UniProtKB/TrEMBL annotation:
Alphabetized InterPro entries for the sequence: F420-binding_dom_put, F420H2_bilvrd_red/Heme_oxyg, Pyridox_Oxase_N, Split_barrel_FMN-bd
PANTHER family named among the record's database cross-references: F420H(2)-DEPENDENT REDUCTASE RV1155 (PTHR35176:SF2), HEME OXYGENASE HI_0854-RELATED (PTHR35176)
The protein, known as: F420-dependent enzyme
Cellular-component GO terms for this entry: cytosol
Domain Pyridoxamine 5'-phosphate oxidase N-terminal, chain residue ranges per copy: 10-141
Signal peptide: none
One Pfam family of this chain: PNPOx_N
NCBIfam families in alphabetical order: Rv1155_F420
Keywords: Oxidoreductase
UniProt GO MF annotations: coenzyme F420 binding; oxidoreductase activity, acting on the CH-CH group of donors
Amino acid sequence: MTDIEPGRDALLRLIGQHDGGVLVTLRRDGRPQLSNVNHAYYPDEGVIRVSVTEDRAKTRNLRRDPRASYHVTSDDRWAWTAADVTAELTPSAAGTHDAVVEQLITLYRDVQGEHPDWDDYRRAMVRDRRVVLTLRIDHVYGRPRA
């Protein structure tokens, strides 16, 4: 049974209680492409943020078509939330102190806490051509915990 937007707060709470989910993007032929990713949820903004690299399929797919879905489950997989989202992508990190790297640092802290070597992290973000993916939540559905 699927509950369509009843208990919206409970559905969104599940996203905030976990730091991982499945991002579903659309390939050029219309088929879904799924990726397991880590995320941070920002309830005041109604968005989910993810660090991705410029050269990945999910990034290319989202630059072409920003429509996506995001799926999170409880540890026992009984409760779940699916969110229809619209993606926004920053440019790739270009310099160790640019705005994108600063956003990536905030995102890292929100998901993992402190990094042991922020200078090394900054260099890696530029080398890996990291991007901040923001998923604006348009609609949620699922099965909140009873």
